Amino acid sequence: MHTNTIFVLQALTLTAACFFSSSMMAKSLAITLDDSPRSATGYFDGPTRAKELIAEIERHKLPQIAFFSVGNKADGEGKKRLIQYANAGHIIAHHSNTHLDFNKHSLSEYIADFEQAEPQLNTLPNYQRWHRFPYLREGDTQEKRDGMRRYLKEKGYLNAYITLNNYDWYLESLFQKAIAQQQKVDFEALQKLYVELIIESIEYYDQMAVEYLGRSPKHVLLLHEMDITALYLGDLVEALREKGWKTIPVKEAFHDDIADYQTKKVFKFNPGRIGEIAYDNGKRKGLWHHSLDETYIKRRFETEVLGNLKH
Question: What InterPro entries does this protein map onto (predicted)?
């Protein structure tokens, strides 16, 4: 074979290998915000939070995200906030009527609460028949879990699972408590801590996915509609992009093959879809990363966000 021909074939082989390698290494995630319209009586009021959050989304060119919404909060200012999110092109979805803890209620009570939320939510623009269980608790008995699986299927609802878990809500609670107590907050340090904590958990669950699924799936990131989200979502996204992550629309993420996965395990406390898959394949420890530990978060917040200002 001619030397030039061999060189061309080698180059093509190398290019193909690089292409398939980069494809396998591609990482993507969709962003979802739970508990909307969440209470807003601290750093921001509701209208300001919505304005800042929409601006942050647009400024950083994020694709369509989903707001999992609580029915009994979807009135007055809260309803106006949800309409703003929908009019900005984002999805409104179902998150129960009273943020009910399924572990503490019967199947019939949970279904009744679910149905109370529908008239409050399904008339809003961009409503999708997606349901996310509050606290990710899908039923602590087989009867409850399987009953809700059947009910959601009959109603035509997707179980809007997550793959990337974190405790952003706890960091928010520490921030709001500091504001209420008129403590000096180092906002630059808060931004850094927010980004680091969430990326720690994202990378942990992605590595778990690669180990137990054999690939990095189209991930679904759980966040909440909160003030720190409005402040720092863009910083988080830019940090992720620097690490090679791509943000995708939520609809695209829910077309991953793992959307149809159903664990046989009854989880009282659900670690998310990747945790389910890992458990079903033999993993028994480490389904929750240390960045989801309240003691760990509080220590870092007090040391890094408040500690530097105690003089």
Answer: Glyco_hydro/deAcase_b/a-brl, NODB_dom, Polysacc_deacetylase_ArnD
